[in-house]
Amino acid sequence: MKKNVLIIGSSGGIGSELAKYFLETDYQIIFHYFSHKPKVQLREGDRLVSANVTIESEVESMIAEIKAAYGKIDIVINNAGVSISEISWKTNLSNWEKTLAINLTGPFLVSKHVAPIMRANKWGRIIFISSIVAQSGFIGTAAYGASKAGLLGLNKSLAKELAASGITVNAIALGYFNVGMIADVPAEMKQNIIDSIPKKSLGDTIQLFETIKYIISENSDYLTGQTINLNGGLYM
After folding, report:
1. How far is residue 188 CA from its own chain's centroid?
2. I need a surface site. Which of 4, 49, 172, 187 has the fewest CB within 10 A?
3. Catalytic residue among 27, 33, 70, 144
4. Would the pTM count as exceeding 0.90?
């Protein structure tokens, strides 16, 4: 039976790129979105699902729908995210709460409701997309950095809880890539960022996809609880 992949946040910059690459594989793809439906051509066995990942009842219903359709959930990529740039002492509390809800509570809720399904199946892969900002900080990203750092702690705890059930849990801390939130960075600042990267270039999403391909493979079952730094040498 083919394995399936649930991509949370499949319509954003990173998510849409991952969707494109996964459509070239044999995996059955479940594309999650909330406000913007992804522009993908579904193949037989693929599916679109929608939920606000910050609301537990919606997450629970979405996971139940997927289980009813496929009987299992093999792989989850927690990719939904938002970043609102504000200096910490000027950060609006509602923006702080929104950022943590989407970036941290959402992945927790998704993982909470897929874990029993994976445990019953004695196999699973959970991936959290985190950020170098969680490790090194960046001006104006207090809420974003805190939320992505929280994922790294969640990652370790879930990995220990689920390892005996044949489930691995890992995080990928992304540096600066050529799609996604980098688009909102002014040109001069973007160039300064590139100059600061030892590889002197932004990351490409194919590099992220190839990393994920290994993490979700059968041969990766001894890799769990880890944060994989994919950043061109910017943080070591």
Report:
1. 28
2. 187
3. 144
4. yes
Kindly report, residue by residue over 133-186, the tens digit of the pLDDT: 999 998 889 999 999 999 999 999 999 999 999 999 999 999 999 887 677 778
149 residue type, one letter: A
What tokens were used for 95? 């923006």
CB 182 within 8 A of CB 134: no
Amino acid (1-letter code) at residue 30: I
Q: Which DSSP state fits 42?
A: P
CA distances 39 to 25, 50, 180, Å, are 18, 14, 16
Domains (ranges, CATH) in the chain? 4-228 (3.40.50.720)
Annotated catalytic residue 21: no
User: Look-up: residue for tokens 């039976």?
Assistant: 1
Kindly report the three-state secondary structure assignment for every residue of 100-162. HHHHHHHHHHHHHHHHHHHHHHCCEEEEEEEECHHHHCCCCEHHHHHHHHHHHHHHHHHHHHH
